Amino acid sequence: MGRDGRGVRAVSDSSIEITFMYRGVRCRERITLKPTATNLKKAEQHKAAIEHAISIGTFDYAVTFPGSPRAAKFAPEASRETVNGFLTRWLAAKKKHLASSSFDGYRKIVELRLIPALGHHMLVDLKRKIIRDWLDALQVGNKTLSNIQSCLRSALNDACDEELIELNPLAGWTYSRKEAPPKDDDVDPFAPEEQTAILASLQGQARNLVQFALWTGLRTSELVALDWGDVDWLRGEVMITKAMTQAAGGIAEVPKTSAGRRSVKLLRPALEALKAQKGHTFLAGGEIFQNPRTLVRWAGDQPIRKTMWMPAMKKAGVRYRRPYQTRHTYASMMLSAGEHPMWVAKQMGHTDWTMIARVYGRWMPLSNVDAGSKAEGAFASGSCIDARPSKSEASR
């Protein structure tokens, strides 16, 4: 195999070949040295240094043999990790930077979707076709497909930043499939008579909570996080500065966006609900709404739905919809009454009103009998062209 079986041999008048084992593969590389006795000894020392670096995990094939065709195959360990290993490490690093609810969403996608399907691939081998073929086989809607790709795209962007991969296979590309228009039951507000029936089936703190929800449009996580100190009685507003989800384990978190931190105008029914609630929790000075069964702050959407909401809907004889529909009900009421979409957006914590128009557009009045009259009064008096024919034109 070479000089006295030591893995070093002369292969030409100007080069020496050294042989060593790396990752279970027998590797042969040439170094440009005249095969004299002195240089063969140097080659043995070089081979020994390589084997020592391999044994302690510091050997970098591309650095030691930059011109070798094997360099790409034997890339550094960091860039040869599996998708499973990288996503597990990435998710752990994300935990301290994301709100609990956002992290929980990422965790479910990573652990239940990405790792089972793609985890066995080497990270550097993950190509767009592999991802596309997997997504194409999933029996889910475009919204779920978008959420999966958003999570994976973010992870692969970080992999690029770490120089583990050169290009993100999802960069500038999103997979979606043609599907039937979504049903309208996702936005399914309660009619006035249904609201009356639901409130009539409740009493005390439960009634106050639902009436307040219907007339503020707050998310459940925002409702349960409210404290009496958040109410500005003089301005007639409530300040939304925190949210509380079950994923956060009862810990209040700041809203995800700056628009989520807002003041909400308290309309008369909402104020009436607050005043009625004062008799239950105001003197304690803590949370506004409590679970009537435990007399402590609600833990989140699930206990509200199971212990209060579902029995109330059944008692009221109202077709079941989830508690979040109180938020949709508020939006539809405000828009149907002609309130400005931008005002509704700010009340609900949206950055702009494009989402309001997209989701609740069918409740926005298209026109009324006076439409256009304000513009005419302000601008048309002195600037309109007289459409009547002149005398010379009329005589023709």
From TrEMBL:
Pfam families: Arm-DNA-bind_2, Phage_int_SAM_3, Phage_integrase
Domain of life: Bacteria
Cited InterPro entries: CB, DNA_brk_join_enz, Integrase-like_cat_sf, Integrase_catalytic, Integrase_recombinase_N, Integrase_SAM-like_N, Min27-like_integrase_DNA_bind, Phage_Integrase
The keyword Flavoprotein appears for this protein: no
Residue ranges constituting the Core-binding (CB) domain according to the UniProt record: 81-160
Transferase listed as a keyword: no
Boundaries of every Tyr recombinase domain copy: 185-373
Record key words, sorted: DNA integration, DNA recombination, DNA-binding
Similarity comment: family membership: Belongs to the 'phage' integrase family.
Protein name per its UniProtKB record: Site-specific integrase
Gene source species: Pseudomonas typographi
